[in-house]
Give the backbone structure.
Amino acid sequence: MSQQKSTLCSPFIRATLQLTACIATVLSVLILCNISATAKITYAIDNGEDQYVLSSNATELNAVLDEAGVTYSDLDLVDTTTEDGVISVSITPRQYVTVICDGVTTSMLTNTSDTVADVLAHLNIELDEFDQVSSEPDAVLNGVITEISVTRATVTYSTESIPISFSSIREADTEMPRGEEAVTTVGEDGSLDKTFRTVTMEDGTATTELISVTTVNPVDEVVSYGTKTEFERPTNGLSTSSEYITNIDDEAGTFTTSKGDTYSFSKQLTLNATAYTAGSGAICSTGRLARVGVVAVDPKYISYGTEMFIMSADGSFVYGIAIAGDCGGAIDNNDVDLYMTSRSTCLQFGRRDVVAYVIESND
């Protein structure tokens, strides 16, 4: 329900009372100063915009103001003071302004020099961030702004969350046995959170605005898989190398030896192996010197120059790093002939299956 403040008396009556009081003050000053009715009186008049100095025989204030050509309203506040025989007349222009806020209408008398913010402060009206006022708060009334309306706003917030799925990462664990794996970090989904602000005015109009975007990064799942082999130092006396494989990372395509060297391999072959030997200074079919580490292959199956790490499947026999550098008449497909230093060693070796990791070239 609207509410209207009322005044105790009309503006004209109040202004008349004020002017009468001022005239009485001026007469009192004249009496106290023993000024004759024909003496000139000095008036200093300030109406808030202009200043006037007037010497006049008039003793009534309205006559003085008329003589000075100063206009004023019945609502204006007129005040006088006397110092050193000069009567100072101060005129403060005033006006009525109507304020409509929170369903209440209030009319108040205020100075025309007040701002909209001053009026609201007089009425203890506080504005929230999104409230709207019919005039700018720093606007001066100046007799032009006669009505101020405040429209309240209701502010609400909402969040829209878009999930971000976590990824699964596989990591090699050199201490975990080959073939085993375990989840070492549990994955958690993240999200893209959008926060919106909706401002709803009293008339129902609403404005929604995106005010922030926050990203909660997902926590990737980590699956550790083992690369550690069960191989130890070779126990077969026919081995030509004491170096053995400690880790095989099938997913990365690498193996690491007991010397700490890591090699990339392209494939793992199961070969049917025999052994051969040759006299000192013998030359292989590729022109290489026959020695331990040079093996004979079928070049249609394994190209000349291919580098391999050869061992038995259980790791008890290790031939080590070898290069395909010779060919024999009985070698076919997945056959391989391993060079050894003596005929008796070759006979002891006989025929057996071996595993060859084909080492990728760094070229």
User: Anything to note?
Assistant: The chain has four domains: 11-92, 94-151, 155-225, 232-359. Residues 232-359 form a domain with the Barwin-like endoglucanases fold (CATH 2.40.40.10). The chain has four helices and 22 strands.
